[in-house]
Specification:
Elements: H1 2-9, H2 19-32, H3 36-44
Length: 46
């Protein structure tokens, strides 16, 4: 389905945050690293 396609494109799914909080966390995380694996690890935490 669409989720698998988005996952293949590198989308990081975050179910525990709403869109606004996820964007804020992403902005802060991108200030720290651009490494996709590290970003996924940061978002794996609550």
């Amino acid at each position: 389905g669409a989720g698998k396609h988005l996952n293949n494109l590198g989308v990081i799914f975050v179910e525990y945050l709403n869109g606004q909080k996820a964007r804020i966390k992403l902005m802060l995380a991108l200030g720290k690293t651009k490494n996709k694996k590290k970003l996924k690890k940061l978002f794996a935490r609550s």
